[in-house]
Amino acid sequence: MSRKSTVVKMLPPRRPDVSIEPLVKQMLSALGEDPTREGLQRTPYRVDKALKFLTSGYDTDPAKVVNGAIYSVKYDEMVIVKDIEFFSMCEHHMLPFFGKVHVAYLARNKVIGLSKIPRLVDIFARRLQIQERLTQELADCIKDMLDPIGVGVVCEAQHFCMMMRGVEKQHSGTVTSAMLGSFRSRKATRDEFLSLIRS
Predict the structure, then answer these.
(1) CA–CA separation, 154 vs 56, rounded Å?
(2) Domain limits of the chain?
(3) pTM of this prediction exceeds 0.90
(4) 143-172 residue pLDDT tens
(5) Annotated catalytic sites, by residue?
(6) Other residues' Cβ atoms within 10 Å of the Cβ of residue 96
(7) Beta carbons of 13 and 59 less than 8 angstroms apart
(8) Average pLDDT, the chain
């Protein structure tokens, strides 16, 4: 089943003139705090600034970040960038989840600048997310940009919504994967990728 291109799919631009500072003040009051006390006076400003940074992926076009760093090379082997650290925010509780991503593609005579892959991770991580969607969006983006023979993405993360609340399990982790093209259809390709990211 075909999916819409992640590269060209841009969300409506945010309104930079809208501040969430008044909302943070209301939230502090609702929690039983005094927003005017010394330690909290600048908190609404800091939260506004922090959240805009942590969700800056909404305003970022992957194609502009890659900026043409796609090169024609006679190469048809696997390229892997592993252990890419990321931080994101769960869309259900707006609490952080964090971990590492491993990205691989089987080239079709076209490669991407290696530093661009971690930048793409940041774009999709800096949105309100669920881990499953983050993993799929990265795979789709690499596929759309490179038209490779296959793409594999594995994401390993820990979620504060499980660690701080709910089941309160401190050491549980979640692993998600997205396999496209030969990574899905050929077990040998998939096994090679999984073996290499574990080594």
Answers:
(1) 23
(2) 21-54, 65-198
(3) no
(4) 999 999 999 999 999 998 888 877 777 778
(5) 90-93, 131, 159, 161
(6) 17
(7) yes
(8) 91
